[in-house]
Amino acid sequence: MQANDKDHLRISADVIARSVWAERKAALWAARLMLGIITFSLASANLSRTFGVLGGIIAVCAGCLITWCANGSHLLQLGAELSARFTRFPRSIFRRGARKYSIVQAAEILPGDWVCSQSEYERQCAPTRKANKERRQRHHERIERDRDWERERYVHDMKRWEMDLERGYSTSPPRAPSTVSSHCAPEDWADPFPDFLPVVAIIPSVDGESLQLTRLGCDPYCANPEEIFLRRDRYSTLPLRESSSLEGRLIEDLLLKLSEEGEVSEAQILAQFSERGHEAPIVLHAIRALLVAKLTTRRRNLYNLPLELLAIIRFLNISPSRHLKLSTIGKMWVEANKYRPQRRQAKVMTEGKYVFLGDIYGSNIGDHGSVYNVSTTVDYGLIGRLVTVLDSAVDRFSDTADPQGLQEALEVLRAATKEGEVPIPKLRRAMIVVARVGEGLIVGMAGNALFEQLKHAISSMAG
Asked: What is the Cβ-side half-sphere exposure of residue 172, based on CA atoms within 13 angstroms?
């Protein structure tokens, strides 16, 4: 993996931009025509039975009127939102090939790949393999029961035959039980096809010993670079990168703005980007692409529902209140976009003064224990991943042994993402609380690899 290339760490903004139609006349008319056809179909189904030909004429007029009056831009926005809500994966971005896959290491995975870890696939196959084992066991038990019954019958027939010989009857001896079963062995059910999920972003740790894979439809997954994954074949016509475009740069700027300001109204976004010289159709194009890619979510005010319906009519120029905010996938995309491989320096306090040294690994400096605090390199990338995982599980803090302590530790870690603002001992204490109280949350949300990194970081930091 080329860590300096951002397109090897997250889906390219230009690829996201091409996932929706540009707001041109053809797209606007296509959206309006689709609404007109839907209106005609509904009106025709309800009026034709009652009014006959007159009902059909009314349905045609209603369809033409809606097509002419509809706001194509508003319809494209609604279509993008419906696509994000009811489609599991945006096929316009993540396209997969035939039902074939290959075995790769985590370091070979790129954004846009459909992957499934070997451990996840083993868990997926476990029910099928267990069922096959039970079926084979039942088959063997059935064969053993039949053989026991045949042996008992043979013993009984032998006794009758011997009694017949004693009475002077000449009969043929009973046939010995067969060693071959008449029951066919059941065929094992095939293992299910791996449940592949598309990769949106890949965030390497500072030390390069782990990768955090962000995939649509599941929680972030921490993996070692050598961990085995199954990767589904993809269409060769889908590039991971495209030439820089205005829409792509606008998408990147919009994601960074949302990560800094949180929830922002669409009217404010349009106003601010218009001041920078961007046209409204291009800004709306970026918003639709982010919705389809599931990098952002849109919040509406239910009291504005009548305005949403009236906004379909383009002559009214109504703009309902809408707000955008980053989704969890969007936050990981921004984190991968900001990632820069670098070496961090440690702060060492000796005899009450801070001395900036290079990469220090717990050495005692000075005479006769004059070192008050020695800390190693702090992995701020690990802290950022912990904050992301805990933020996504904040509603489950009440299930832990110390919800308030875990919340306070999370606030310390969140403040520590701004490097140098939290003292090392305080940061270490917060990480100990997270490891002690939030172990189940971390392992359940991100796997054991992230928790092992947390324990290693705590043990390597001076107390």
From this structure: 3
DSSP code of 362? S
pTM of the complete model: 0.58
Cβ atoms of 359 and 374 closer than 8 Å: no
| Residue 249: burial class (beta carbons within 10 Å; 0-12, 13-18, 19+) | middle
Residues of the chain falling short of pLDDT 70: 1-7, 91-92, 181, 206-208, 235-244, 301-305, 315, 317-318, 340-377, 418-421, 462-463
Q: What pLDDT, in 10s, does the model give residues 15-51?
A: 888 778 777 778 778 888 888 888 888 888 888 777 8
CA separation for the pair 290, 271 (Å, rounded): 18
Task: Say if CB 313 and CB 71 are below 8 A apart.
Answer: yes
Specify the amino acid at residue 211: L
The pLDDT of residue 164 is: 83
Question: Which residues have a Cβ under 8 Å from the Cβ of 160 and sit 6 or more positions away?
Answer: none
Nearest to 12 by CA among 232, 327, 255: 255
Give the integer Cα–Cα distance in Å for 309 and 302: 12
Complete DSSP assignment for 57-72: HHHHHHHHHHHHHB-H
Residue 347 exposed, middle or buried by CB count within 10 Å (0-12, 13-18, 19+): middle
